[in-house]
Structure formats: structure tokens, C-alpha cells
């Protein structure tokens, strides 16, 4: 009887302890959730407004350039102005996106002045005709403002890294109109092979709020219709598999040309103010020789022609690589991802005509596969495909992305990107992306 009484008393003591611990655990999680809902909402609102202003600024600059082609002749001087502005920074980098990735790895700080610098310099690049994208500015704007908000809110270093990722997602979502891809991209691009799931809730909330703000002010992302798609059968899947393999080669070519051109400019032209002069003059000469402005700016009108109208110049993807490499190596600011869309879409459309499969579908698959090859981000690549082109072509996108991811090796646009796990084995390798 005494033993049974003791057991009953122990149970009576244990049950309240378990209930109390359960309440504490639930309460702590609710407090954490509330904290991140508030912080992410602030981040999404701030980056939604900044991203909208930036997106409209780039759009206005592009429209002005297309209406006044003569402004291209000011490109070299715009480059000199950009380099002069960046003299405020002690260290210059061709792509400060590396600085954002380093901050998430806790290897360096992101100064707030990065935001206005990249904002103004990217608009100048687009206004005068440099071949660049917008996402470099988006990631840097998001990273610097997210880091700044983390400081204001006085959160610890680990949470500040989450704020940086939430800021990146918000800015990316506002500019591209792809909230799902934006959510995952900032978590996936940092360390290939692992995902920072601790940032999932903040990134989701910040991404969708920024997207809502951008839509409210009339800034929507690109959406394309692929028309009637072919059946997903063995012959068609084989053609897309081959396309994915070729896109991996194109993505490697893109990364190598960009990095090698940067090295050549840095070695041969020591003066940072002379580089944009040389770069700008080369862009002007190439534009005059080709007799078209298709390769200036983002070139999204060419992407639309490839996807919707199925029209492409056979060497368009090569020319865009050259224009982008010369622009960014000269010190102009922007990003490489939108040029990647151009390269992938035009190459895919060309291969679709060669392989006798829908050029529109091939352009969409090519864009996703090359994007995956240069960023090593397969999940983000799939999501951005679904958001831009719809869900009907999902099996085709997935095949092209998977092959490109494996076959593109360890090359990448960002040298600060960490490859944590091998692409072909379940093996921890922890190395930086190849240049």
C-alpha cells in the first residue's frame, strides 16, 4: 500500500510539472512567433516601399533611354560617376552581393550606405544603357536595410542574420513579383546543400507583405503564357533533359566569362576610373556595330520575344554574356540574374527550334535551368518558373533544373556562396563556389 501511495503522489507531482513545462514551451513559441511576425512585417513594409521606388526608378530610366537612344553616349561618364561614388567604400567589389552573403556567414558587416549607393548607381547604369539586372540591387538593398532594422531593434547577431535574409526576400519579391521564389532564394543561395529554416517564417511574411505593397503601387512581376504545351512523355522528356545538360554548359560559360573578364580588366587597367571609360566605349562600339539596342539594360523585351513570340537571334545568348561581362567588369552596378534570364530564354528558344519542341516551353526551361546553374538554387529555380510561367509545365521545368544543377558543377556567380554538400554524393565538402 505504501508503494502504491508513493507512486500516486509522484504522479500527482509529475503531471503539474509536465503541464507547466508544456505551457512554458507553448508560450515561448508564441512569443517567438509574435516577435518575428512584427519584425518581418516591418521589414516587408520598408523593403516593399524601397523596392517599389527602385523598380519604378529602373523602369523610368529604361523608358527614357529607349525614347532617347543618344543617352548611350554618356555611358562612360556615368561609369566614372559610379566609381567616384563608391570611393566612399574602403573596398570595392564587382558584386557587393558577396558582401551580403558574407554578412549572413558572420564574416563582415553591411553598412547602411550600401543601400543608397546601389540604388542610385544601378539606376544610372540602366539609364545610360549598361547591360545589367536588378536583383543585385534587390539583394543588397534588402540585406543592408534588414541589417539596419536588426540593429535598431537590438536583436542578437544570429537573429540579425535572419533579418538580412528576410530583407533579401522582401526586396526580391517586390521587384520580381515572385514571393514564393523570393522566400526560398535568400535561404537557399547562402549555403548550397542546407536550408536556413529558422528564417522561414520571417522570409515568408516579409516576402508577401513586400509583394502586396508593390502590387498596391502598380509594380507587378513578369508573367508569360506558354500556350499549348506538348505531352510529357519519354521523347519530350529526353529533349528537355538534353536541353538541361546544354544549359549547364551555358551557365558555366556565363560564370567563367564574367569572372575572367573582371580579372582581365583589373590586371590590364589598374586605374579604377579608366575601367568604366573603356567599358562604356566598348558597349557603344558593339551597339553601333550590331545596329540594335537589344543587349542594353535588362533586355526583358527580348525575353518576351523568345518566350511569347518564339523569335530569337541565334547568337543572342552569347552577345548578352559579352555585354554583361564588359558592363560589370567596368565598375557599373546591377546584377547578373536578369541577364541570366535573357541568356537562358534565348538559348532555350534556339534549342527548342533545333530539337523540334515548343520554343516557348524550351525558353522557359532554359531560363530556369541557366538560373539554377549560375546560382546553385534548384528549389528557387522551380518556384520562379511556376510563378512566371504557370504550373502546367512543372515536369519539364523540374527535369531541366535537376540536370543543370548536377552538371553545372561548383561554378557560381557569387564567390562567397558556400557549397556545403556535394552535388553527386551525400558528402560534406564545405567549399566556396568556383569563379
Which consecutive residue ranges, at least 5 long each, have pLDDT under 50?
none
Query: Can you count the beta strands?
Result: 3
Strand portion:
under 5%
Element-level helix/strand string: HHHHHHHEHHHHHHHHHEE
Structural class: mainly alpha
The rough form would be described as: globular
List the strand order in the largest sheet: 1-2-3
Helix content: 55-70%
Gap from first CA to last CA: 76 Å
Radius of gyration: 24 Å
Count of discrete alpha- or pi-helical segments spanning 4 or more residues: 16
Mean of residue pLDDT values = 88
Q: Main beta sheet, described?
A: 3 strands, mixed
Task: Explain what this protein looks like in three dimensions.
The chain is an all-alpha fold and 435 residues long. The chain has 16 helices and three strands. It has helices at residues 2-67, 75-85, 97-104, 114-128, 135-152, 157-176, 179-188, 200-216, 234-268, 274-290, 300-309, 316-329, 337-355, 359-375, 378-389, 394-407; strands spanning 191-192, 418-421, 428-432. It has a three-stranded mixed sheet, with no helix packed on it. Strand 2 and strand 3 (428-432) form a beta hairpin. Helix 9 (234-268) packs parallel to helix 12 (316-329), helix 9 packs across helix 13 and helix 14 (359-375) packs antiparallel against helix 15. The radius of gyration is 24 Å and the shape is globular. The model has no long low-confidence stretch (mean pLDDT 88).
Amino acid at each position: 500500500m505504501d508503494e502504491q501511495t508513493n507512486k500516486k503522489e509522484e504522479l500527482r507531482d509529475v503531471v503539474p510539472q509536465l503541464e507547466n513545462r508544456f505551457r512554458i514551451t507553448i508560450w515561448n513559441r508564441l512569443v517567438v512567433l509574435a516577435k518575428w511576425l512584427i519584425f518581418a512585417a516591418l521589414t516587408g513594409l520598408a523593403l516593399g516601399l524601397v523596392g517599389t521606388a527602385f523598380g519604378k526608378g529602373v523602369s523610368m530610366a529604361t523608358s527614357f533611354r529607349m525614347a532617347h537612344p543618344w543617352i548611350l553616349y554618356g555611358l562612360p561618364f556615368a561609369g566614372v560617376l559610379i566609381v567616384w561614388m563608391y570611393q566612399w567604400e574602403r573596398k570595392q567589389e564587382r558584386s557587393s552581393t558577396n558582401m551580403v552573403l558574407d554578412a549572413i556567414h558572420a564574416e563582415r558587416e553591411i553598412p547602411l550606405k550600401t543601400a543608397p549607393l546601389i540604388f542610385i548607381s544601378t539606376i544610372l547604369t540602366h539609364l545610360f544603357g549598361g547591360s545589367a539586372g536588378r536583383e543585385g540591387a534587390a539583394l543588397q538593398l534588402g540585406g543592408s536595410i534588414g541589417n539596419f532594422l536588426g540593429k535598431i531593434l537590438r536583436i542578437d547577431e544570429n537573429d540579425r542574420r535572419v533579418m538580412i535574409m528576410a530583407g533579401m526576400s522582401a526586396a526580391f519579391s517586390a521587384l520580381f513579383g515572385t514571393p514564393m521564389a523570393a522566400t526560398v532564394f535568400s535561404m537557399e543561395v547562402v549555403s548550397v546543400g542546407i536550408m536556413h529554416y529558422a528564417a522561414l517564417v520571417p522570409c515568408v511574411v516579409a516576402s508577401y507583405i513586400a509583394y502586396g505593397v508593390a502590387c498596391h503601387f502598380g509594380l507587378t512581376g513578369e508573367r508569360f503564357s506558354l500556350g499549348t504545351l506538348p505531352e510529357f512523355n519519354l521523347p519530350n522528356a529526353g529533349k528537355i533533359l538534353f536541353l538541361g545538360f546544354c544549359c549547364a554548359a551555358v551557365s558555366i560559360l556565363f560564370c567563367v566569362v564574367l569572372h575572367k573578364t573582371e580579372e582581365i580588366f583589373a590586371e590590364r587597367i589598374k586605374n579604377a576610373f579608366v575601367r568604366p571609360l573603356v567599358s562604356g566605349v566598348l558597349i557603344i562600339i558593339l551597339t553601333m556595330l550590331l545596329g540594335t539596342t537589344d543587349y542594353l539594360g535588362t533586355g526583358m523585351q527580348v525575353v518576351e520575344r523568345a518566350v511569347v513570340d518564339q523569335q530569337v537571334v541565334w547568337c543572342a545568348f552569347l552577345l548578352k554574356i559579352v555585354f554583361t561581362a564588359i558592363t560589370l567588369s567596368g565598375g557599373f552596378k546591377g546584377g547578373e540574374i536578369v541577364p541570366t534570364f535573357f541568356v537562358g530564354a534565348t538559348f532555350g528558344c534556339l534549342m527548342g527550334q533545333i530539337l523540334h519542341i515548343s520554343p516557348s516551353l524550351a525558353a522557359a526551361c532554359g531560363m530556369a535551368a541557366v538560373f539554377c546553374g549560375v546560382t546553385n538554387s534548384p528549389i528557387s529555380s522551380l518556384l520562379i518558373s511556376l510563378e512566371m510561367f504557370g504550373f502546367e509545365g512543372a515536369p519539364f521545368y523540374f527535369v531541366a533544373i535537376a540536370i543543370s544543377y548536377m552538371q553545372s558543377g561548383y561554378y557560381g556567380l557569387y564567390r562567397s556562396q558556400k557549397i556545403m554538400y556535394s552535388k553527386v554524393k551525400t558528402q560534406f565538402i564545405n567549399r566556396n563556389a568556383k569563379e
